[in-house]
Amino acid sequence: MRTMTRRAMRGVGLLCAAALSLTACGSSDDAGSDTTVTGGDLRAALKKGGSITVWAWEPTLKQVVADFEKKYPKVKVKLVNAGTGNDQYTALQNAVQAGKGVPDVAQVEYFALGQFALGKSLEDLSRYGADAYENDYSPGPWSSVAVGKSVYALPMDSGPMALYYNKKVLDKHGIKTPATWDEYLDAARRLHAADPKAYITNDTGDAGFTTSMIWQAGGTPFQTRGTNVTVDLTADKGVAAFTEVWQKLIDEKLLAPISSWSDEWYKGLADGTIATLATGAWMPANFASGVESAAGDWRAAALPQWVKGAQSSSENGGSSLAVMKAGKNKDLAYAFDQYANHADGVQARIEAGAFPATTADLASPSFLDTPFPYFGGQKANEIFARSANEVPEGWSYLPYQVYANSIFNDSVGKAYVSGTTLADGLKQWQKSAVDYGTEQGFSVNK
User: Are β-strands 50-55 and 75-80 bridged in parallel, bridged antiparallel, or unpaired?
Assistant: First the structure.
């Protein structure tokens, strides 16, 4: 994923800050936007037909669009790839600010949803009855799209975390799959001592990974109530748990200094010099396509625990589909959103390789019993589904998390390449996040 430039990111923040005193970022509520819409209304809209535009980069939606148009022949869906992640967010904010060219539906990652919701750019889907769907989705994704009684998107997928490990490498050195992060640290020491070219994992500093680890440890460093924001990256218990273990890995040079998604990273995963990877349930497809030569060597396991005997996981990645308030055909937009994420479209996406956020699919015997040839026939979905149900509640992102992530390596990233400690880097990141939020009109840490 390409990174948004600092200048572009500041533009995003300024747009959302302006929204604090406006009805919406560049748009106003249309008449009837608070009116309850029934299933009958949606059926009538589908029968009447029309056209909608969907901005999304997720490839499985191509099949969903084809199936949707076949079922509802009077509806035309224009699927547009306006850029991946941050590139799309810039284009989306620009369109909202200009008041034209706004799509009806947009793919928004969970960590970025807050900035659009606070800017009142998104339709509250509770008027369509989406607030009744809470039990239909796993906890992590639902907590990211719902605030109180408001629902700002429907979860597309999820990224419950697991520990992927090279069984061949660990077995060679007599290392058991670590059940705790302390055991993980010990495994890192043993592995690197046995083979100085091998590392337990790679890490050069990544905001998404760091926040996921803090989340698993029960941390809640970001809290938002309206325009009141709290940032606590110094005293939070999850931050303390993460820094205690990860600082030792850094100090003892037990992490491969390799950036994820680089050619060197894929090579390390293939030749065993990177022995484990803690990330989301969407990773298997990347193993199969990018690390083909190591097929059969890798397995999946539950994340190591911060407290022995605990059962806690986290989310890493995942997206939602939101209905834009400035869209021209919101009823049809919601009908598509519902089809893609709460009806027949879900199965089509699973068959194409997506990992579901829907509890019914996560509990389905056919889903759980699916063997993964890459993992030696292991039924890895059993691990991923269990992980999805073990994500701690209470987590939230900053309403300007996209910008905060873009400056992560200016502070925390220094701990990986200099004498700065993780604790000091996180303290600096907090200051930058507080200063930026205050500049944008939020009341931060007050």
Answer: parallel
